[in-house]
Amino acid sequence: MLAAQSGSTTFSTLENALVVRQSARPQCASGIAAVWADFDVAVPDGRLLTMYVIYMGRDQFIPPVGSVCRIIVEPARIEGLSSAGGLDGRHLQNRVDSVACDTGAWSDAASTRN
């Protein structure tokens, strides 16, 4: 895992992360409340990590099980709804900034452009 810092935010890059679980797609997109899709990845050092990606709509790429990905994440206190229930911001979670897989790609920057 590589780490880089941008301002006061620390991003980490996970290489060759294998997606082993994907949550069901949320029934609604983020609006007043943040809605998070989540998926688990196995990384080469043996850890199993849960990733959270802000859900913007049904056409958004979320890596399917079996995808091999390069994921840029930041530890963040996220709030909102996920497949596991409410996230209250009390614990650091792996917030996905971008994901590029052998099955597709998504970037938070692309979803928030005006």
Give an overview of the whole structure.
The chain is mainly beta and 114 residues long. It is built from one helix and seven strands, in the order E-E-E-E-E-E-E-H. It is globular, with a radius of gyration of 13 Å. 21% of the residues are buried.
Gist of the model:
The protein has one helix at 108-111, and strands at residues 2-6, 9-22, 36-42, 48-54, 68-82, 85-101, 104-107. Helix content is 4%, strand content 61%.
Spell out the helices and strands N to C: EEEEEEEH
What is the distance, rounded to the nearest whole angstrom, between the alpha carbons of the first and last residues?
32 Å
Oligomeric assembly: single chain
Mean pLDDT across the residues is 86
Radius of gyration: 13 Å
Structural class: mainly beta
General shape: globular
The proportion of residues in beta strands is: over 45%
Q: Provide the helix percentage.
A: under 10%
Number of strands: 7
Give the SSE layout.
Layout: E1 2-6, E2 9-22, E3 36-42, E4 48-54, E5 68-82, E6 85-101, E7 104-107, H1 108-111
Parallel strand pairs: 4-6
Antiparallel strand pairs: 1-2, 2-3, 2-5, 3-4, 5-6, 6-7
Write a concise keyword list for the protein shown above.
mainly beta, 114 residues
